[in-house]
Amino acid sequence: MNTCQMCERPDEIGGLLCVGCTKATVVRLESLPALHRGLSPFLQPAGGVGAGRSGKGGPAPLPVNEDILDLRGPGGLVGAAERWLDDVRRGRGHAAITPAGGIEVRLQAAVAGLLANMGWIALSWPSAGYFAKDIRDLVNSVRSIIAPVPAVAVGQRVGNCPAIVPPAGTLCGAVLRLAPGEKALRCQWCGTVYPPYVWPQLKVWIDEDTKARRVA
Fold first, then answer.
1. Which of 51, 98, 173, 184 ranks highest by number of CB atoms within 10 Å?
2. Which range is most confident: 36-45, 53-62, 117-126, 175-184?
3. Which H/E stretch holds residue 68?
4. Same domain, 100 and 165
């Protein structure tokens, strides 16, 4: 009886991936095209998003998020899927395939190729465990961007909004709370939105403003 290379539990059918880990890997592979599309809205903050500070500390848009750009680019999701498919085809003695079309078309093709070979991967491929773990980690990294676990409890007081409100250029200062069902902090007074990926910087701004008030 073999041990599953993914969960390290005995596999009764003698494969390298157990039935549960095989099914989980199939689901993760099938989700890659949708996750790729789901990253698109996070490439660049929309107008009014508090992603940076200008001059006197007001909100200013960030450039394109490079991490997300990498995930959506040739070396990201599609690159990982194509590299694994190349390895699988090499392991089976099949000729390599030259990718064709745009990123989304290539990703769909690579996913389809991997799914078509999942039976062989689970039963016979020595690298099955490394493959399954890499696909799991890849999917989790994308999901952490699209649907992150909130860093603060729903309804919890986060701090005072650090946005500088035009035209007077005054500090907003309204209390920020994560509203039920929301995945981003939105100031109910000035309307500035703080997506999850700017929360670490948001904390820095809030701490800076709190310290400045104490000094004043």
1. 51
2. 117-126
3. helix 66-72
4. no
